[in-house]
């Protein structure tokens, strides 16, 4: 693509990203977001269910998926004898509100392992939800949206459930003049019941920050070279513009079906808004994990 054409395309994307969302379009946007999330959950469940036909251990994974799919299913399966640490995630409560041009729906999950509530993790989850609720109430109380619209939607998915770890992903979308998606992942060590940070996981690998950061920037460059519609902000040297340079060890992460660490970034964090929230799967030969 010629530079002029590419500049036009990028300008169009930038203009699109800053288009205000009128009230009449809000319902369609929210419906599209919810459909995308449901499709993602369905694909994840299909992938994991396919693996259940391979071994007995995979069959047990299918039971775990069903238990995490809904409180009704989970309650019905409580009496089934199982082996190993079994995690269950259900909706503890939902904060819902709608008044004038403000709307909120925030699902707050609860985690239990081997039928025992994980109080420490659940407190962290409630604190995170509390921050979302407080911000919403501030918007309403001070009428910060004015004549515009403000909505916040937060839901969750179980993205990892293996013998050792449970990863609970909380997806939050805030719509004001435009939409912004943020991701918070709680990765829990089933043996200790504690939330594990990337820093904790890689504590015995002193060079992990450089190795993972360089791999992420490599993936960014490769994706941009292969697809003109993709764009990332990252530093290529000390004199380059501001952008992603190094991870901190506090990023949200989970394990995919290959056992690779997947690092998630919020919308706008390392890319323009039209890219949404982005993720990078880090090969095992990079992490050494």
Instruction: Spell out the CATH superfamily of the largest domain.
Output: Fervidobacterium nodosum Rt17-B1 like
Number of strands: 9
Tally of distinct domains = 2
- CATH uppermost class of the largest domain: Alpha Beta
Report the sheet-strand fraction: 25-35%
Quaternary structure of the protein: single chain
Could you walk me through the main structural features you see in this protein, from its secondary elements to its overall organization?
- This protein has 289 residues and is an alpha+beta fold.
- The protein has two domains: 176 residues, Fervidobacterium nodosum Rt17-B1 like (Heat Shock Protein 90, 2-Layer Sandwich); 93 residues, Alpha-Beta Complex (Actin, Chain A, domain 4).
- It contains eight helices and nine strands.
- Strands 1, 2, 3, 4, 5 and 6 form a six-stranded mixed sheet that branches. A three-stranded antiparallel sheet has the order 7-8-9.
- A hairpin with a 3-residue loop joins strand 5 and strand 6.
Brief write-up:
InterPro entries: DUF3298, PdaC, PdaC/RsiV-like_sf. This protein is of the alpha+beta class and 289 residues long.
Helix-strand layout with pairing:
Blueprint: H1 3-17, H2 23-51, H3 56-69, H4 71-76, E1 87-99, E2 102-113, E3 116-117, H5 119-142, E4 150-161, E5 165-175, E6 179-189, H6 198-201, H7 208-226, E7 252-255, E8 261-265, E9 278-282, H8 284-287
Helix pairs in contact: 2-3
Keywords: Membrane, Transmembrane, Transmembrane helix
InterPro entries: DUF3298, PdaC, PdaC/RsiV-like_sf
Transmembrane segments: 51-69
């Amino acid at each position: 693509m010629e530079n002029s054409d590419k500049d036009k395309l990028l300008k169009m994307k930038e203009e699109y990203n800053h288009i205000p969302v009128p009230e009449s379009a809000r319902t369609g946007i929210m419906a599209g977001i919810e459909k995308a999330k449901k499709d993602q959950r369905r694909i994840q469940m299909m992938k994991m269910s396919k693996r259940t036909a391979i071994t007995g251990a995979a069959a047990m994974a299918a039971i775990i998926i069903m238990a995490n799919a809904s409180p009704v299913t989970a309650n019905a399966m409580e009496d089934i004898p199982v082996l190993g640490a079994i995690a269950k995630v259900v909706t503890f409560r939902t904060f819902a509100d709608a008044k004038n041009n403000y709307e909120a729906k925030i699902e707050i999950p609860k985690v239990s392992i081997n039928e025992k509530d994980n109080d420490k993790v659940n407190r962290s989850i409630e604190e995170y939800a509390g921050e979302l609720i407080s911000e919403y109430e501030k918007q309403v109380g001070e009428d910060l949206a004015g004549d515009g619209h403000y909505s916040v939607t937060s839901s969750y998915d179980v993205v990892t459930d293996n013998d050792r770890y449970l990863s609970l992903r909380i997806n939050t979308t805030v719509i004001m003049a435009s939409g912004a998606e943020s991701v918070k992942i709680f990765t829990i060590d089933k043996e200790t019941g504690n939330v594990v940070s990337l820093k904790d996981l890689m504590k015995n690998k002193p060079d992990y920050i450089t190795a993972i950061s360089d791999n992420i920037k490599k993936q960014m460059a490769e994706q941009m070279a292969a697809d003109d519609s993709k764009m990332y902000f990252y530093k290529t040297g000390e004199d380059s513009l501001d952008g992603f340079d190094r991870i901190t060890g506090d990023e949200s992460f989970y394990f995919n079906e290959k056992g690779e660490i997947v690092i998630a970034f919020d919308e706008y964090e390392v890319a323009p808004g039209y890219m949404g929230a982005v993720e990078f799967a880090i090969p095992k030969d990079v992490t050494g994990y």
